Amino acid sequence: KLKGKTILLVDVSGSMAWQLSQKSAMTRSDAANGLAIILREICEDVRIISFSDKAVGVPTNRGFALAHAISRSQINGGTSLGRAVAAAANIEHDRLIIITDEQARDVVGGPPSGSGYMINVSVEQHGVGYGPWHRIDGWSEAIADYILEVERPATKSAALSAA
Questions:
Q1: Mean pLDDT for each consecutive 10-residue tract of the chain (163 residues)?
Q2: Residue 43 gets which letter from DSSP?
Q3: DSSP class of residue 101?
Q4: CA of 158: how far to CAs of 136, 153, 161, in Å?
Q5: Checking DSSP bridges between strand 55-58 and strand 43-51, what pairing results, if any?
Q6: Which of 49, 70, 133, 163 is 20 to 30 A away from residue 13, measured at CA?
């Protein structure tokens, strides 16, 4: 389990309805919802928020009920990712995990506090999550293992010693 409080921001903007590739029927939203289901299970205390033109709280359901709640949480409009990150700053948390295609119409700063993870489920070449974010391009259940490893106390100590 990921100890502490996690905010999981899930992009539901219009661009998330695009297919992952020309050879796939799977959409960016399908990948994002699948990752949200996995990450919800490894987080000790999680708050899930969808974002498009606004940020909307989502029930922390499990499995496909969570995917359904995320998909139906709001109209799929533009992408105010920067505004969603700013809203997360007002909520106590240890880490912020964003699942997105990194298309944004506003400025995205760094994580407001704690660790910040920017997971890009698209194939876009240029993203918005630069700076102090842990950037992850692509999607797989191994992302959960990666986050757990990054936050493991021995790993943090070794990283700090090397710096």
A1: 95 92 90 96 96 95 96 90 93 96 86 90 70 86 92 65 55
A2: E
A3: -
A4: 21, 9, 5
A5: antiparallel
A6: 133
Whether the Cβ atoms of residue 87 and residue 120 lie closer than 8 Å to each other: no
Whole-angstrom Cα distance, residue 19 to residue 11?
15
- pTM of model > 0.85: yes
Percentages helix, strand, coil for the chain (3-state, rounded to 5) are: 35, 25, 40
Task: Determine the Cα–Cα distance for residues 10 and 59; give it in Å rounded to an integer.
Answer: 13
- Which residue is associated with the tokens 């240029």? 126
What tokens were used for 75?
């109209």
What's the CA gap between 133 and 162, in Å, rounded? Answer: 19
Residue that has been written with the tokens 């139906």 in this structure: 72
Residue 115 CA to residue 134 CA, distance in Å, equals: 8
